[in-house]
Amino acid sequence: DMRNRIELRHLRYFVAIAEEGSFTRAAARLHIQQPPLSQQLQALERELGMNLFDRLPRGVRLTAAGSAFLDDARAILAAVPAAAARAHRVAGGMEGRLAIGVASSAATHPIVPTVIAAFRKRHPGVFIEFVEGNAASLTEALLARQADVALLRAPVDRPEALRFDHLLQEPMLAALARAHPLAVKAASRSSQWVTLRELGQYPFILVRRPGAPGMYGNLLAACEGAGFTAKVAAEVGNMLTNILLVAAGMGVSVVPASMRGIQPELVSYMPLRGAGRLVAPLTLLSHREETNPAAARFVALARKPGTDPHFPRGRKNEGPSLVS
After folding, report:
1. Backbone phi, then psi, for 17, in 5-degree steps?
2. Closest C-alpha among 321, 296, 297, 324 to residue 310
């Protein structure tokens, strides 16, 4: 296969001869002797099976085939430094691809779109794609290398191959339809809130255990700690469906505080009392053995957003803290 025998030096020699119109001048330009230059051109012509030059008494002239080959040779030589530069940018995380997994319950927190926007501003050459799912499916996506990083709430489990960074935690709020009797009762208070025991009088809508076992289990444990066993009306696949069923009056729920902007005209979000230390974490998953430089840069930005000028500092007690 001639592609295995034609080297870049053959193309450089050929272009120099074509541009100089003389072996002598081309050899001087390339800082080599004329005989080796002639031998290399002859080797190139043998590989191509054609003459690239007509030999004249004084100098050389491109054949028709040589003229056509000159354009391609120049293009190939020009592409080499561009390819090397692009490889350097990809190796440095400035270009390439980044697959970000995002759980619906995590997407509502301002830090998620903010860190993605900050990353895009710093690395506009990186193509970003998104993988949607819950904690369980996104963990599997990382293990299968279908996602490079993932943002979710409480991890399902902690495979050794993955790194877990606890970025922040936020309060959990009671969520119930605005027409719900408990919401009407709470509205009569000077400051609207409900206790977990009050909420526990009604059936819960929860994100199913396989998808969010940590938050699911933590809520049930908080109910037991408050002296009752939670009644579960339905289990759904994600937090957005959870809110939809709450809005429809099918039950009550407990959700991360950053979800209070979802369907606010239909759903009341109120502080929860008597729930112990029931909080919603935000966790960043990545590979311990990182092979994607863009992913490494994303992780560094998400872990320490205050060091990046594109990333506004969070409110008190909402900044990232590292827990590996």
Report:
1. -65, -45
2. 297
